């Protein structure tokens, strides 16, 4: 990744700029034609079917999104005709979630005749049972929190009478949002002429699959390339009985059928944290049950510590760490929900917790059953479809299965909606003849608590580990939201941004933000990582004042890069 | 990360050689003498935790939160408190092992750099001593003794697999303690905050669990103060909670079509204070006062911004200065508490409520200052921005309904004060003097309600006589 980028950095000063706005966008665009030429070369290699030469080629990052001029013409055409007539479709995608949708749209742009198979509802987990309805609930919880915080309101000079909520109204908002996004998604595919095939998709053999309700009524179709995008379902560990009423998963919780007085949340990752935000805002008390020794595993430790101080400690939340919920019995016969705890390491019993409800937020399990993977000799690993870095499916002998790809939660690489979509676009690039490898380190992640947490790239411990292996030094710099005008105007000065970088090259290794609108702020950093932009260049980028983006501006400016000799100074035009 | 700047308090050091090397702390040495006469040796190790200087420009810091609570065992390098400097929140670590004996500056409060914010004790034996020190450190003096509910423990604890772990106070919310958890997260938080032994409580929540309300009840907190916002207490919120007489079981007949409007926080406070006042034996003394001279003075000083309230408050304050017993308080039913300053609380009706802004040191301020001060207080009261000491520090209350034409009324004595004066309207009245001549003069009736445990009839009469002399000859008011 580094190599391709630094190549592009060397030349730009020679190019005359006629447009002032282009100057800010800077170097990354200028390198685009060069990258495309690389891709073109590789297409030749692809046609000669020498897969080996492909896999040793240099990793290249930015080529798909930059060719916007090409996209525009392609998008005007509708779904293309199958290229050679041997297949019913150029591309069939199994699963119409966000990953499948992103791939389908991009495929049409590339002129591929595309079909998408969906056995449930269009939109998948994200739209129907995940990101989308949960954002509706979090929007409510954010406002409740604000209105309930008399001190906060008074500091604005506002007076608010006791805030209350109507549960059904909140639930309806979540539901309406999901249906709206779902119809948007469906319409966008229909408008482009993507064939939406209803039923369960099963792979019968290479480039051949069937769909339908199962049995003899199924239709068999052929496709030049197939993408598996079947997603995931909530993971329920052994010993836990989900009844959908008092012991629930995120699927049930999003319907908000009841707001318990006291709910235990098993797992303190993204899902658990977001729900703790919703439930405490609506008046519940929350008990976290976390198997690891610390809450919020997976977050940068420093961010986690601060987030815990703001999101957990002052709220009506307590926690049990280092314990598994070995058995959860739903409420029945006048008994509460009973959670039996065992020590995560020694497995010794650690007592029980009695609560009104339990939310299982231990993660998500891939939904890959019934796909017919056995027909092509693919063995799942803990349910996940094994893939290489280009999302090509690997069979049980370790060989690549030709023309078969798997994206999104089903491959388990990075279980995020936008990651699935990015993987899908990457695959479409490949099947339409341009090599593309997605840099997962450039994919941002966000947790929509109040305030939000967002991150991209490595955490500090990961960066230090990498630095030790590769022999470079990690530098860290931080800025506070307390020093930001916009944040202070909003009375939301709580939060920090943290930059992990290489002082010798100016490469960004990771950025972590905790604070107001952190999820919206991360993209400057994730784009910089994706484009390979260095800190010494970012320092010259201008941010509007007063905005929250100045938190990042200050972050980049406070970084100390040792050598910045090879960077062109911005030229006044 | 900053570290706490701690110092041994010199008065408590037992040996000068040790105090110069505060880091040296051979624990074995200190453990030994505990069996024998420990007092001279062990009491040396109480350290103050100072507000650290987190930046060169920092002059004071705000305590964002105490990560540790009183009684928590600290080990060197652990984060103890979060301090907000001018730029960011910083975790502050301890240099020493020990026990956090007392928190001097509470969360949300501010202290200058170098001020003691907490007390660190070396051993459990010193906690009491450290606490005493903490109370002398700060007038805030937290840690009121909590009434404990003596009930059998509902859930006998299972034996811990490792007794050593169970014995040590767990720093987190006791996640590792095995046994039945029957208190809700917020209940546990409150119990820790108010130092209520949660094992001794009996839960009234669903499935017998201990709810936040149970803990509040055990801690003697009325649910009214549940919100963290300081409720504007009406007539002098008393500090010493007098025993509230049990409410008589009352059942009033339902009148159809009636609406029920719950009290606001202010109205709740008024109601509470009024019920509380029933426990004080009061009596009333009335006095007629001619006001022609006062009215004349008022006309003269009115253009200068002086109000009638200021005139009356100043007069009362001057009279009180001569009769300190009327300015006194009976706190425990056994003694007089003479107040050092004369603070006149003046009752003000404020939409749907009643509040008593206080004119502090009314005897010392001149009329003009007093009038200005009063104007500010009323504005603040309207904006609900009165600070607690601006409405609950009164030593004597003035209530004036004269402007409404009320000729006489009788006020309820607010708890915590010795007397309250009710002022009626000034009206032209036919008077006969000692020679039998009739004349028409303006006259008003004042009526004082007082606590008879400390103020007797003669005291009040003498006070009223002084007061009437000041009103009838008001020149001294402008001096």
TrEMBL record, chain A:
Residues 443-554 form the Pyridine nucleotide-disulphide oxidoreductase dimerisation domain. It catalyses: N(6)-[(R)-dihydrolipoyl]-L-lysyl-[protein] + NAD(+) = N(6)-[(R)-lipoyl]-L-lysyl-[protein] + NADH + H(+). It is an enzyme of class 1 (oxidoreductase). Keywords: Chloroplast, Disulfide bond, FAD, Flavoprotein, NAD, Nucleotide-binding, Oxidoreductase, Plastid, Redox-active center, Transit peptide. It is found in: Plastid, Chloroplast stroma. One of its GO terms (molecular function) is dihydrolipoyl dehydrogenase (NADH) activity. NAD(+) binds at residues 267-274, 290, 363. The active site is at 545 (proton acceptor). GO terms for biological process: 2-oxoglutarate metabolic process; response to arsenic-containing substance. The keyword Oxidoreductase applies. PANTHER family: DIHYDROLIPOYL DEHYDROGENASE, MITOCHONDRIAL, DISULFIDE OXIDOREDUCTASE. Belongs to the class-I pyridine nucleotide-disulfide oxidoreductase family. This is dihydrolipoyl dehydrogenase. It comes from Olea europaea subsp. europaea.
UniProtKB/TrEMBL annotation, chain B:
Keywords: Acyltransferase, Lipoyl, Pyruvate, Transferase, Transit peptide. CDD domains: lipoyl_domain. Its cofactor is (R)-lipoate. It comes from the Eukaryota. Residues 182-219 form the Peripheral subunit-binding (PSBD) domain. The keyword Transport does not apply. It holds the Pfam family 2-oxoacid_dh. GO terms for biological process: pyruvate decarboxylation to acetyl-CoA. Residues 1-23, 131-180 are annotated as: Disordered. Residues 46-124 form the Lipoyl-binding domain. GO terms for cellular component: chloroplast envelope; chloroplast thylakoid; pyruvate dehydrogenase complex. GO terms for molecular function: dihydrolipoyllysine-residue acetyltransferase activity. Signal peptide: none annotated. Its EC number is 2.3.1.-. Residues 7-23, 160-178 have a biased composition (Low complexity). Belongs to the 2-oxoacid dehydrogenase family. This is Dihydrolipoamide acetyltransferase component of pyruvate dehydrogenase complex.
């Amino acid at each position: 990744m580094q190599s391709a980028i630094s190549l592009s950095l060397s030349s730009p000063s020679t190019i005359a700029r006629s447009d002032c706005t282009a100057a800010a966008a800077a170097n990354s665009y200028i390198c685009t034609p060069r990258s495309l030429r690389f891709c073109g070369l590789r297409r030749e290699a692809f046609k000669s079917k020498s897969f080996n030469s492909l896999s040793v080629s240099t990793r290249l990052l930015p080529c798909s999104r930059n060719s916007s001029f090409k996209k525009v013409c392609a998008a005007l055409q509708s779904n293309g005709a199958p290229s050679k007539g041997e297949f019913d479709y150029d591309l069939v995608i199994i699963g119409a979630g966000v990953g499948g949708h992103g791939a389908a749209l991009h495929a049409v742009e590339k002129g591929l005749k595309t079909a998408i198979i969906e056995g449930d509802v269009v939109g998948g987990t994200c739209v129907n049972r995940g990101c989308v309805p949960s954002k509706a609930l979090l929007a409510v919880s954010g406002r409740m929190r604000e209105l309930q915080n008399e001190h906060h309101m008074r500091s604005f000079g506002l007076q608010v009478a006791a805030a209350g909520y109507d549960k059904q109204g909140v639930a309806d908002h979540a539901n309406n949002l999901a249906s709206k996004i779902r119809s948007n998604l469906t319409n966008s595919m229909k408008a482009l002429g993507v064939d939406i095939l209803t039923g369960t998709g099963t792979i019968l053999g290479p480039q051949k699959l069937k769909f339908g309700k199962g049995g003899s009524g199924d239709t068999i179709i052929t496709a030049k390339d197939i993408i598996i995008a079947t997603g995931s379902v909530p993971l329920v560990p052994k010993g836990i009985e989900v009844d959908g009423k008092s012991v629930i998963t995120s699927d049930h919780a999003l319907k908000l059928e009841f707001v318990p007085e006291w709910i235990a949340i098993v797992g303190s990752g993204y899902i658990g944290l977001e729900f703790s935000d919703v439930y405490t805002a609506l008046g519940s008390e929350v008990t976290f049950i976390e198997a690891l020794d610390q809450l919020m595993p997976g977050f940068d430790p420093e961010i986690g510590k601060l987030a815990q101080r703001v999101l957990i400690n002052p709220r009506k939340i307590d926690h049990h760490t280092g314990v598994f919920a070995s058995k959860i019995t739903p409420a029945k016969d006048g008994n509460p929900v009973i959670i039996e705890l065992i020590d995560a390491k020694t497995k010794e019993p650690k007592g029980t917790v009695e609560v009104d409800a339990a939310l299982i937020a231990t993660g998500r399990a891939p939904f890959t059953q019934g796909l017919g993977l056995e027909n092509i000799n693919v063995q799942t690993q803990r349910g996940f479809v094994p893939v290489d870095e280009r999302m090509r499916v690997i069979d049980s002998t370790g060989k690549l299965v030709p023309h078969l790809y798997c994206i999104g939660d089903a491959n388990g690489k990075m279980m995020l909606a936008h990651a699935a979509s990015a993987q899908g676009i990457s695959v479409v690039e490949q099947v339409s003849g341009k090599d593309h490898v997605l840099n997962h380190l450039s994919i941002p992640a966000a947790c929509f608590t109040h305030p939000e947490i967002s991150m991209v790239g490595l955490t500090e411990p990961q960066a230090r580990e990498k630095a030790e292996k590769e022999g470079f030094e990690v530098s860290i710099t931080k800025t506070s939201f307390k020093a930001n005008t916009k944040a202070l105007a909003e009375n939301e000065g709580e939060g920090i941004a943290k930059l992990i970088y290489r002082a010798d090259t100016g490469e960004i290794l990771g950025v972590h933000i905790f604070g107001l609108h952190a999820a919206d702020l991360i993209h400057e950093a994730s784009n910089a990582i994706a484009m390979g932009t260095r800190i010494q260049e970012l320092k010259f980028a201008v941010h509007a004042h007063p905005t929250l983006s100045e938190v990042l501006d200050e972050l980049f400016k406070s970084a100390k890069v040792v050598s910045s000799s090879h960077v062109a100074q911005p030229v006044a035009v | 990360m900053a570290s706490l700047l701690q110092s041994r308090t010199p008065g408590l050091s037992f040996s000068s050689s040790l105090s110069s090397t505060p880091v040296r702390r051979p624990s074995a040495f200190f453990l030994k003498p505990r069996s024998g006469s420990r007092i001279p040796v062990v009491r040396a190790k109480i350290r103050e935790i100072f507000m650290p200087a987190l930046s060169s420009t920092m002059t004071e810091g705000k305590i964002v939160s105490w990560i540790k609570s009183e009684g928590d065992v600290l080990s060197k390098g652990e984060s103890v408190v979060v301090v907000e400097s001018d730029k960011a929140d910083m975790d502050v670590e301890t240099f020493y092992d020990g026990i956090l004996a007392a928190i001097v500056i509470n969360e949300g409060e501010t202290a200058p750099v170098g001020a003691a914010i907490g007390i660190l004790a070396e051993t459990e034996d010193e906690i009491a001593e450290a606490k005493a020190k903490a109370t002398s450190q700060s007038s805030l003096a937290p840690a009121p003794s909590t009434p404990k509910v003596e009930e059998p423990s509902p859930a006998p604890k299972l034996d811990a697999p490792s007794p050593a772990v169970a014995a040590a106070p767990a720093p987190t919310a006791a996640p590792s303690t095995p046994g039945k958890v029957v208190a809700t997260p917020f209940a546990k938080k409150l119990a820790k905050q108010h130092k209520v032994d949660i094992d001794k409580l009996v839960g009234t929540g669903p499935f017998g669990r201990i709810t936040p309300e149970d803990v509040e009840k055990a801690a003697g907190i009325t649910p009214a103060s549940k919100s963290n916002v300081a409720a504007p207490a009406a007539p002098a919120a008393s500090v010493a909670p007098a025993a509230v007489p049990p409410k008589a079981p009352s059942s009033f007949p339902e009148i159809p079509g009636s609406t029920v409007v719950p009290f606001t926080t202010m109205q709740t406070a008024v109601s509470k204070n009024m019920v509380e006042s029933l426990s004080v034996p009061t009596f009333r003394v009335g006095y007629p006062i001619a006001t022609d001279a006062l009215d004349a003075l008022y006309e003269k000083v009115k253009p200068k911004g002086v109000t009638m309230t200021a005139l009356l408050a100043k007069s009362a304050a001057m009279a009180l200065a001569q009769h300190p017993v009327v300015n006194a308080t009976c706190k425990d039913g056994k003694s007089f508490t003479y107040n050092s300053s004369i603070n006149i609380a003046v009752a003000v009706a404020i939409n749907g409520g009643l509040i008593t802004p206080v004119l502090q040191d009314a005897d010392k301020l001149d009329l003009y200052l007093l009038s200005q001060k009063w104007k500010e207080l009323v504005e603040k009261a309207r904006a609900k921005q009165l600070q607690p000491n601006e409405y609950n520090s009164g030593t004597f209350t003035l209530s004036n309904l004269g402007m409404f034409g009320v000729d006489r009324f009788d006020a309820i004595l607010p708890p915590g004060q010795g007397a309250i004066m009710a002022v009626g309207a000034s009206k032209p009245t036919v008077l006969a003097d000692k020679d039998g001549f009739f004349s028409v003069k303006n006259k008003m009736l004042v009526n004082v309600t007082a606590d008879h445990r400390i103020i007797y009839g003669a005291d009040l009469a003498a006070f009223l006589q002084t007061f009437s002399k000041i009103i009838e000859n008001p020149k001294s008011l402008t001096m």
